[in-house]
Amino acid sequence: MRVCSIASGSSGNCIFAGSDHTSVLFDAGISGKRVEAGLNAIGMTGSDLDAIFITHEHSDHIRGLGVLARKLSVPIYATPETRDAILSGGTVGKIPEELFREVEADAVTRVGDLCVEPFHISHDAADPVGYRITGGGKSAAIATDMGMYDDYTIAHLQNLDVLFIEANHDVRMLEAGRYPYPLKRRILSERGHLSNEDSGRLIGEILHDQMKHIFLSHLSKENNYPALAFETVSAEVTMGDNPYRACDFPITVAKRDEISDEIIF
């Protein structure tokens, strides 16, 4: 399996995952041109895509979806509520409804030789989900845009090889920042976004000896810094109630405006 973050942050998100025979995107929150450039950088093109899976309908996850759908006629997988929100939202132009395929949380969808399992997340969207991807005995997961986690979340993130995990904001930066009070409340709520501290605590719950890489993802441009996210998450992992130290595993910050290193495992 191979995975790569093409873009990650509050201004746009797109992740590639594939095997030798199957290629999929998770979200298309950047322009179609940037998606294509990101795919080209890892030796792929848009025509190689077998599917696009959508986590939820917010613009930083679907901005380029209409262009890609119309150009490539690639199947789009989303929950029915997310599909309806995309089609009624009017922000991505017309998408042929026949391109949509329904997914359901906790039910596996197979695309080529990859199995993709959505799981519920807590966020202020129609029916948001994270995704666990497995193939060839390997597994990765995308867990972003969630204001809280619980035992259900932890159960879906067990025994992963690679994890894309939200580290959206530093709480003190957010509280002291220029966002209006209602937006601060939204971000800090159980239907908002994970802080750096909560991200580190969640990572501590799911670490195991075979974990190969962790990407800190969906950082806020206004309320976080890559170095701060890395240091805070690392401290939580190292000081947490688990047998590991942060330096035991590769932890990197997924980049906002360029692709991350491709991980092949």
Write the element-wise H/E pattern from the N-terminal end onward: EEEHEHHEHEEEEEHEHHHEHEE
Give the mean pLDDT.
97
Structural class comes to: alpha/beta
N-end to C-end Cα span: 6 Å
Report the helical percentage.
25-40%
Separate helix tally: 9
Low-confidence stretches: none
Report the biggest beta sheet as strand number plus sense, adding barrel if it closes.
7 strands, mixed
Task: Tell me what the structure shows.
- By secondary structure, this protein is an alpha/beta fold.
- The strands form two sheets. A seven-stranded mixed beta sheet has the order 6-5-4-3-2-1-14.
- The chain contains nine helices and 14 strands.
- Helix 5 (151-156) links the parallel strand 10 and strand 11 (162-166).
- Helix 8 (196-206) packs across helix 9.
